[in-house]
Amino acid sequence: MGKYILKRLLVVIPTLLFIVFVVFFILNITPGDPGRIMLGTTATQEQVDMLNESLGVNRPLLVRYVDYIWDALHGDFGTSYTFNVPVARVVMPKLPTALRLAILSVCCSALLGIPLGILSAVKKHSLIDNALTVLALFLASVPGFWLGLMLMLWLSLSWGLLPSSGVGTWQHYIMPVMTLALPSAAFISRLTRTTMLDSMNQDYIRTAKGKGARDRRVIFGHALRNALIPVITQLGMNFAGLLGGAMITEIVFGLPGFGNAIVAAIKAKDVPLTMFAVIFLSTTFMLIMLVVDLIYAFIDPRIKAQYE
Amino acid sequence: MFGKKKKIVTNVEPSQWKEVWRLFCKNKVSVVALIFLCIILFFALFADFIVDYQTIITPNPQERMLGPSLQHLFGTDHMGRDLFGRVIHGARYSLMFGVVCTSLSLFGGCVLGATAAYFGGKVDAWIMRIIDALMCIPYMLLALSLVAAMGSGMESMTIAIVVASVPSFTRMIRSVVLTVVRQDYIEAARSCGVKDRDIIFHHVLPNAIGPIIVNAMMNVAGLIMSAAGLSFIGMGIQPPTPEWGNMLSEATSWMRQSPHMIIFPGLAIVLTALCFNLLGDGLTEALDPRQAER
C-alpha cells in the first residue's frame, strides 16, 4: 500500500510541471503588452518598452518558463497587471466562497442523488424510476446558467422569495447551490442506479439472498457498499470540478468565486493572474482526484490486494 | 435462466444499418427527437428565407420588448429585433458548432486513441500519460485559457473547445478500440501481413464505430451547451450575431421587464440538447441491445 501511495505521489511532480507548461505555453504564446496594460493609455511608448524589458516579456518562452517555475518554487507567482499586488493575494480571498459553494453543492447532489438512485434501482421500471429517468434526461439537457436564470426569474423576481445576487446571508447560496446541485444530482442518481443494478446481478448478492438475509440488509449491506465506489469517485470529480468550474453560475449570481475572478482576469488580459488561477485550480483538481483514488484503493480490498 | 439470446450488433456493415434503423424505429421517443431535430435543422438551413438576416440585427426602437404575439411569435428584444428570427438564425451557429466541434474532436480522438490502443506498449503509455495530464486541467478552464490566448470569436471558440475535448474523446475511443484489437480477426489480419494503417481503417474502426457514434452524439449536446456558456460570459460569439448564449447574456439586464427574452433562447438550447441526448439514447439501444435490457 505504501508503495502504491509513493508511486502515485511521485507521478504528481512531472504531471504538475507538464500542467504548468501547458498553461504557460497557452497563455504566453501571444505575450500581449503587459507594460501597456499596467501603465494605461497615457504612458509613452518608451516607458511601456522599458517596463516590458524589465518584466522580461521579450525573452524566449522556455527561458521564461524555467524562470516561472524557479520563482514559483520560492512562492512567487508574479504580480497581477491590473491590481499590482502578488497574484495569490487576489485569488486566495475567493477560496471561502468557492469552497462553500462546492461543498454545499456536492453534499446536496449526494443527498438527493444517491437515495433516488437506490430507489430507482430497487424499483426498476416503476413509475418513479421512469419519472426520474425523464427528469434526469431533461436536466442533462439544461445548461446550468439557464437553469440559474429561470430560478432567479421565478424565486426572486416573480415571487420575491430569495435575493437574486451577491453574497451575505445563507439565502444567497440557495439558488446557486440548486443550479449546480440539481443536474449533478440527476447524474448521480443515474450512476447509482446503474452501479446498483450491476452489483445486484453479482453472485454474492445471490449468495446473500440465498442464505436468507433480509432485503434491507442485501441492499444496504452488500449491494450498496460495492455500488458506491464509482459514485464516490464521481462526487470527488464533481467537487474538484465545481471549485473552478462553477464560473458561469458564479457570474449569473454575482458570487465572488474563482470563476468570476478568472473571467475578469482574462478580459483584462492579466496573464499572471489567469495563469496562477488556472494552475492553482488544476493542481487542486489533480490532488483531489489523487485523494479520491487513494480512498478508492483503501476501501476496495481488491485494489489494495494488488499492491501488497 | 438467461432467457432468450438477444442479437448483439457489434459489427456495423452497410447491410446491418437496416437492422440498426429497425431497432432505432422501435423507440418512439428517439424517433420524435429525430423529427424535432430535423425541424430545427430545417429552420437553421432556411433561416434566411424565413426571416432576413439584416432585419434581425438592425435595431428597431419602435417595437422594443414586445411580448409574444402572432406578428412576433417569440416577442421582440430590447432593441426591438424579432426574437423568433434571432432564435432560428442562432440555431445555425449552435448546430454548426456542435457538429463541427464534435467531428473535429472525434477525428483527433480517433487518431490518438486508435494509435494508442492499436500499438500499445510505449506509444500507448506516452499518449495516455499526456492525455491524463491534460485531463487534470478542468475542461472549462482549458477552453477559457485557449480563448484567452486566441481572442474571442467563432474560430477561436471552436479550436478551444476541440482542444479541450480531444483528451476525453481519446480516452473513450482508446477503450473502445482496445476491446476490438484483442479480437481474433485482428490477429488474423496481422498474421496475413496486412498493413497497420489498413487494419486500423478497414478492420478496427468499422467495428468500433457503434459505441463511438453514440458517445459522439451525446457529446454534441454537451458541446452546444459549452459553446452557449462561453458566449454567455462574453468569451464566444459576440453580439450582434444572434447566438443563443449571447442572446441570453444580453437578456439578463431586461429579465424583470421581459422574461420572454430569457425563456425562448434558453428553450431552444434545451430542446436541441434534449433531442441530441434522446437520439444518443436511441442509438445506444439500436447498436447495443444488451443495454436496452436495463
Highlighted features:
heterodimer, A: 308 residues, mainly alpha, 15 helices, B: 294 residues, MetI-like fold, 13 helices
How many domain modules of chain B? 1
Q: Report the order of strands and helices of chain A.
A: HHHHHHHHHHHHHHH
Count every helix of chain B, treating DSSP H or I runs of 4 or more residues as helices.
Answer: 13
Sheet with the most strands of chain B? none
Biggest interface and its residues per chain?
A-B, 46 and 42 residues
Percent of sequence in beta strands of chain B: under 5%
Helix content of chain B: over 70%
Quick summary of this structure?
Chain A is an all-alpha fold and 308 residues long.
Structural features, described:
The complex is a heterodimer of chains A (308) and B (294). Chain A has 15 helices and no strands. Chain A is mostly helical and 308 residues long. In chain A, helix 10 packs antiparallel against helix 11. The radius of gyration of chain A is 24 Å and the shape is flat. Chain A starts with a helix and ends with a helix. Chain B has 294 residues and is mainly alpha-helical. Chain B is elongated, with a radius of gyration of 22 Å. The two termini of chain B are 17 Å apart. Chains A and B meet through helix 1, helix 7, helix 8, helix 11 and helix 12 of A and helix 6, helix 7, helix 10 and helix 12 of B.
